[in-house]
Amino acid sequence: MTHRILAVALPPLPEVQPGDDLPALIADAWREAMAADADMAPAQGDVLVVTQKVVSKAEGALVDLRTITPRPEAVAFAERWDRDARQVEVVLREAAAVVRMDRGVIITRTRHGFVCANGGVDASNVAPDTVTLLPEDPDRSARQIRGGLATLLDRPSEDVPAVVISDSFGRPWRWGITDIALGVAGFAPLDDQRGRPDTTGRTMRSTIVAVADEIASAAELASGKTSGRPVVLVRGVVLPAGAGTIHDDVVMPRENDLFP
Amino acid sequence: MTHRILAVALPPLPEVQPGDDLPALIADAWREAMAADADMAPAQGDVLVVTQKVVSKAEGALVDLRTITPRPEAVAFAERWDRDARQVEVVLREAAAVVRMDRGVIITRTRHGFVCANGGVDASNVAPDTVTLLPEDPDRSARQIRGGLATLLDRPSEDVPAVVISDSFGRPWRWGITDIALGVAGFAPLDDQRGRPDTTGRTMRSTIVAVADEIASAAELASGKTSGRPVVLVRGVVLPAGAGTIHDDVVMPRENDLFP
User: Fold this and answer.
1) Is the CA virtual torsion B193, B174, B251, B7 positive or negative?
2) Most buried among A233, A235, B44, B142, by the most CB within 10 A?
């Protein structure tokens, strides 16, 4: 273990449209980075973190708000809290369950099992009257991007980067959003250290590190929200061996959760 | 903005004892890193992330469990869930409120306002029959470490690193822990981007990024839990200007929270 992590935002991508070949756009940006700095060539253990927004755009997970007729509940909530009733309607349609709906905030459980503000429906960095939805299956999105890159990069298979699809979520009890992983490909998203000795030799009983989420947060620091750089190369992380998905490994089943 | 973040764990610290001069130990480790790699010399914008464990040890925030007589409630909970009743007792003593106490898990609100498992009381990486408590005022701890380093490093004041005190917290709805910031010194822990234009020129309405928490997560990737490297240098982050504390800026007041 090198104890050294590098997170570098790749050059900006062109505006992504539905149907675009996202792996090709990412590979182009990566080649541009390599042309400027040979150290950026793919290496074993690399992770590419791709923000949800460009994945949703490429997959066409967009809604034209001009086509949406909000239900009365959405109109009332929007009027009271100065929001767009059509967007509120989309949030409610996307929700498997409403966890909280108060003070202008709607927190839902999506059909993926994510609990987040507005169910991931987002109007930032998209055209007017348009919102993005979360990708239908972000783990599948990650696998598809990784598969596309494997072909495009023409590198040995051990140098095909892992992929994380990231998004910004709030959390209870603390102000501010942090980036977390919606989907992964190429590594196990949790590092289960239970049973390993700590520095005193005592066996750790409860340490399971959400490595994929920490990678997403590190990537956010390199990209920022307004730079048009939706892809970040993260290098140096000791990736937990094996495969896995956010859906199966990280999303907590309702019956295990102590919270609503 | 360089769009390039580096996180490097400093060499291991000696075992920290109550009363130790933690800034001096950190400065020694940093000098050792510099001796091996001149690029490690302090630079503007550097952040040192220090894990709670060594801060608590240096401050003597330790409890000898042999001195603890558990209350009946702690004994019953410990017997049912195979835990140490004395540790359960300490968790209850440290709690301002118990948020959940079920299935062997105790989630409390500490007097600092943190909501976390076991109220931050932790038996890992400490001597047998000993637990660490959270630092009394982690923002103050961060300021003290930063003040000590300012003297020790003998660098221009703009090169005195910012400091984050980190800890590993679980969260609702997702498995796994991520490192977050308990205290900060030298920058504002939130980057309030509300009012700034996004890439399409639309004004962002709700984006407040928890930069300090993301820095803590990035640092965890570089240190790991079992390496004896409790201090990580994080470089390249665009630190939000100004000052601030986790207590005042990040801990959400009860009346603003939609969760228990």
Assistant:
1) negative
2) B142
